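Complex record, two chains
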Amino acid sequence: MALDRGRMRRDFIAEFWRYRELLYFFAWRDIKVRYRQALLGTSWAVIQPLFNMLLFAGVFGKLAHMPSNGIPYPVFSYCALLPWTYFSVVIGLASNSLIHNHTLITKVYFPRVLLPTGTALAGLLDFAIAALLLVAMMIYYHLKVSWLLLLTPLAVLLMVMLTLGVSMFLAAISVRYRDVKYVLPFLIQLLLFATPIIYPVTMVPKRFRPILALNPCWGMVDSFRACLLPNQPVDFKLIGVSIGLTFVVFAGGLRYFRKSEKSFADII
Amino acid sequence: MSAAIWVEKLSKQYKLGHANPTLRDRISGMMKLDFLRKKPEEETLWALRDVSLSVQHGETVGIIGRNGAGKSTLLKILSKITYPTYGSTGIDGRVISLLEVGTGFHDELTGRENIYLNGSILGMPKKEVKRQLDAIVEFSGLEKFIDTPIKRFSSGMRLRLGFAVAAHLNPDILIVDEVLAVGDAEFQKKCLDTIQKLRASARTILFVSHNLAAVENLCERCIWIDHGEVHMDGKSQTVIKDYMGSMRESTAVVVDLEGTQNRRGNGKIRFQGLEFLSPEGISQKIIRAGDPVVMRFHYCVHEPIAFPSFGFRMHTETGALVTETSTSHHGIYIPAVALGPGYLDLEIDCLNLLAAKYTISLWVTDQAGGLVYDNVENAVILEVDAANPYGSNFVIDGRFGIVFFPQKWNLVGMSGRSEHSLSSSVDLRESLARDNK
């Protein structure tokens, strides 16, 4: 039995690799289509997070004087908004990726997991463009970077894993229950405020922080801050839990997806 | 030879009715403690039941059956799109299944971009698409529009583009669902030619179609699926003949003429129906080009009449007269007709019409034709199916005209001697062409 499962996993990975070109094509299609017939084209990838940052900086930074761990508030919030935007946009799109492609699912075989994965891959382009703005801001504010900058790729990897895990779960469940589409915007909004994105974690009373650690999004945004911004306080124990949960979410999402994918074509 | 495709004791069950309960249904179900009660019997449908078959390498096999018989389900399971409830399948070789032309086309992308996307979805490596791109574009005949988003394409253009990609796939095993049902005659011919070409290169082909003539021509073997089971498996001709026979039994085909509005005449005698029969007297549902047919005119005489003349006229759908004939044309005189119902047969040894729809008008008049007893205009539509009346393996359908003649090509004059006369005829054609310029 254990052997069997091991073989299935190997087959799955081998097949995924065989179909890597199609994954690339799905991502390419998403990117091509997204900004076609949009006057401003890919600049939307910068405009959206920029606008969010200005809004939060205006409301929380200037009006509410939100503390920001000694970093200029715009950079502080944008550094977390960057992975957050990727996460929230991708799970929104990916949860619909199977339904949108139902004609493909009922007419041709390919590893179904390519669809949400393709969306997540395509989102990385927007992420990269939006990251340029962060670099510009860090230069503008003369922020120093530490050796932790070298760990940024790991933070990106964590972000993609968490996003993929949630995406796979939502995509699979929305094949059966279309309610996901209606619930998701609330959840995303709730999560935005439940995660220390526009406020520093130091604002959360110490005794509540273990609860916060159950939210893997905290691990995601704080690992970005820790890597990119100087002198950030990091509670390794709690962040470790949050990051550990990321792996659980990824494995759980993939497992649920694989379990339900056999019936996709019949019930979609 | 070894098996390219094998299917063992395959069954597939579908649940009917509430396929997609919403979250609300589930939650309200929990509130009502549904899980404590006995589950209501779910309605189910066996799309396939205990199907076993195998296809050898290099074989071309047709699959026929009524709508809903389970043909498409079988193809979907073989293509790994859906999974069987019981049983197993196996495929040996690079398989491409074409359940639809142009799968995954995206409206916003250009023709060229869609070629790449569609090729990749169907399992063609990017390098291969690149290599064949020019050939694909040329095959589609859409050179001018290839950089236009396909949302501006007509449905015919999409079909051509999709098929152009499909025609350049190079599978060991090809699984094709009813692709011939769509598109015009020219498109269908292209499809058939392509499948023929693949067949010639010893590929394995599994082919679902309602076009029985095409199945008969392309496939040496044919599987008839009925109610989810293999009903018959064998030589195409035999299977198709039996299949058509079963369709005939299912309904007696008499076209009812009682309610026809489009009629005139004094009503002393009235047509009640028109029936198509085989020479053996069995009602025919499907009539193919070249079949022997008996047309039976059912009538009812209400008042005594003498020397009536029965006749009928046949038009093409576009209104061209195909033929008109009557008993008086044949010099037949009918002194009297018994009161009450009766019928008159017109026997046709070989219906030399090609595949199309024809409308039939009937009349009965006095001998001179001046007094009309009954006349129904365009009351019956005769649908003739494509066949290969010349006995070759070439489907002769509506593209090749309205009628075919009993004919024979004679090649006697082609032996070496007559080279001279042949070349002179070519010369003649060339000089004609020159003159025209």
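Note: The longest helix of chain B spans residues 419-436.
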